[in-house]
């Protein structure tokens, strides 16, 4: 015959059993106490201050064939004093593709104030070991960066034996668009051996003459 518990006794047993049931789950205070220890106070800050891999970021930026990186793209990578030496190193590196080399060479034109930029372009344009493609890229980029200040070197490119180097010099001088650049094209007109490049120079001169016609 089962023993019937009195109501007070039953309530006492339930009260004693309740904490045991609660402990079978994680209580809010225990969740905090049992959580993994947080990072050391300076650890997160140290990780955030680790230097960026500028070389890898630029190499990835130059990975596309069609997209030409902008100055804003380069600013996101870092300041000129960090970016320019890496651009020069990438151009000279044999571990990247030719189009990445040319992207790096072209991107230097955004930094005309950096002392190594003009020297690098001149070495590429004048250097007999430079590839024709690199020289063409350098001529256009140099003209974009230095304009009238670069006319002596653009004049050298204008008389280069390579057809496309001369074409690049003509395009760079058109972009400069100054009176001195037009005078340089005029002086070269009779010396240009290719009729299609002669025609291009005439077009540029005619356009400039039309734009300067009396109003």
TrEMBL record:
Record keywords, A-Z: Signal
Pfam families given in the database record: HEAT_2 (PF13646)
InterPro entries cross-referenced by the UniProt entry: ARM-like, ARM-type_fold
Taxonomic source organism: Lujinxingia sediminis
Region (Disordered): 23-50
Top-rank taxon, per record: Bacteria
Transmembrane segments: none
Protein name (record): HEAT repeat domain-containing protein
Biased composition (Polar residues): 23-35
Signal sequence bounds: 1-22
